[in-house]
Specification:
The chain is mainly beta. It is 13% helix and 46% strand. The longest helix has 8 residues. It is globular and about 45 Å long.
Length: 113
């Protein structure tokens, strides 16, 4: 399958700042129909369109919020996998299946305020 150029993900400030200082290397999105359509090559019948289940991107653009002038970080895309995680947003002991979107080297930054 042909690689798409950039996957855009909006983050809240806490997680954006973790990427900015190099503390965080992957971003999570819950396994739901919306993200299955955006991140996989899966057809409605469950079959895979192409050689790979997951879509390929060249870059991951992380945007701090939704404002037109929000700060952005651009990383090389390093792949996607499904993980089971506990996340503070859902409370302790609550496991969640997520797409783990892996980032590589930082290639661009815009710190407009």
């Amino acid at each position: 399958m042909k690689k798409s150029e950039t996957l855009l993900l909006h983050l809240n400030k806490k997680y954006f700042d973790q990427f900015l200082i190099g503390e965080k290397k992957e971003e999570y999105r819950e396994v739901k129909q919306y993200w299955i359509k955006r991140l996989t090559n899966q057809n409605d019948d469950g079959s895979v369109n192409g050689n790979s289940l997951y879509k390929e991107f060249k870059f991951v653009k992380l945007k701090n919020g939704y404002s037109k002038n929000s700060r952005c970080l651009i990383f090389k895309f390093k792949g996607i996998e499904i993980k089971e995680i506990e996340h503070e947003h859902f409370g302790p002991g609550c496991k969640l299946s997520v797409f783990a979107i892996k980032t590589g080297a930082l290639v661009g930054i815009s710190l407009n305020r």
